[in-house]
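quick one: phosphoenolpyruvate bound model?
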Amino acid sequence: MKKLTGIPASPGIAIEKAFLYLEDDFLDIPRYSIQKNQVESEWERFRTANREATEEVKDLHEHALREVSKEQAAIFQSHLMMLEDMDFQDQIKEHLGNSLQNIEWVFWDISRELSQRLTASPDAQFRERAADISDVSRRVMHRLLSVKKFSLADLSSDVILVSHDLLPSDVLAMNKERVKAIVMDAGGRTSHTAILARAFAIPAVLGLSTITKEIDEGDNLVVNGTSGEVLINPDAQILRQYQGAIDQYRKRFDEFLELRELPAETKDGYRACLKANIEIPEEADHVARYGAEGIGLYRSEFLFLTPKQAIAEEEQYRAYSHVLKAMAGQPVTIRTLDSGGDKLLPNFQAADEKNPLLGWRAIRFSLSRPELFKTQLRALLRSSINGNLRIMFPMISGIEELEQALSMLEEAKAECRQKNQAYSDHIEVGIMIEVPAAAMTADILAERSDFFSIGTNDLIQYSLAVDRGNERVNYLAQPSHPAVLRFLKKIIQSAHEKGIRAAMCGELAGDPSATALLLGLGLDEFSMTAQSIPQVKRIIRGVSMENCRILADNALQCTSYYHVTVLVEAWMTEYFPNDYEIRSR
Ligand code: PEP
Ligand code: MG
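yep, here:
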């Protein structure tokens, strides 16, 4: 038996066989020599692959014209031009004849060389073309290798999914009934794959670095998403122990659920508000089961992430209305499109940015695509008559951006009025505070916001300069870093001074070991994966606000994250002596 330890990203234990799912970059391109008399047949293979790829892109082009936008159609049009470019084809034919290597290798070699040359160009237009070249060549290469990209939606038996780095869109598309756990080389606790795994209650261990090399298809695995351990081919006795642990885990979870009807109130009467984060509309149907008092964050971009998905106003309207109706009058905070980074919109954004996390993301993307943004705003406005809607803008970094977003909202309202489309008069509009600049100017932003929601996943990433999906630097992503605590204090204080509420919807809000500290800092609302609500509520009901304030004051005096961690752990041990699970997160 072998044991590996990674980042515990989604709690729970699973025992199943491994299924290896390796992404495109891991495709093995074969390389072998051919005879002169094979050149013609190799060339014919290329022509067939190129023809099939062309047909596919023609379909995508027509689809984009019908259902997406002229801009997107233009991108596919340029892909068609590349596929039909005779100079490029001549180059491949010549290289094939000269090198006498198989066509996959020749084609890969030429496309890679071209793409590298374009990537290095100082001209942004050429750099953009590099991503198009990669896209087009991948399509042709799949045909050459006869790779029918296996769809995770087609999984037909129970498995533990082993991958280098799944995309959020892979998780959305996979057959969730069959995936009993996820393990990955890459990723961290706040990567979007982790967030989705928690949303679907699938145990996950990420950041294992080399797991794809250690595991063979069909190996027996035990995945403990609570401790971060992965056991490869354990013996029968260990398997029995873990089976017992699974039963124990379920029992404990059912006990937590009994708290559902009780208020999230401290011993001295301070009432906090606990809400759920959701990624797909149907999740809203189940959050009441865990005692959610509303939706604190609906990540609307997940609607847009599945390729070919139509994102028309009507479809959005239906999705938002579904959530609002399911919550029956409880507040529902819908965040406008937060694409970019690891959430690229397949129909709009190419994976060619040098620094995607600092690039064309979130509100920046929406403001630069007014048509797309206003379509979403109109869908939101129209849905508002179905419940208690709050609109939230992601990644605001300064007042100008907020004002632009607000004025587009006014334009969208005018467009609705023109079409006699009703919307509620009482929609609160707030912002995410997840960029250090927004935290530092929270007092200014509070003047134009109805509420704040702190996005600690990005706030930690940006303030500590730690890529949240990079397993190598994940140890630095410390929520208890003094810089983060000072930001939190400043944000909450600025909100309260301007008379607005401060919520948190980053993963920290659902971490029971941080609950007392966050209460002490004055946080009004906690929004998290619904399954975490009972545990957080249990902490709130077991503490007094007076003690939490003392804890927060002491934590703010600490000079390092280590000291804060020791302080908070000692505090938790004093108040929750039997709760190993909470202290060991
Ligand atoms: C955050 O950054 O904390 C957040 C909630 O947004 P996301 O995780 O979707 O980036
Ligand atoms: Mg964020």
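The chain is about 45% helix and 15% strand.
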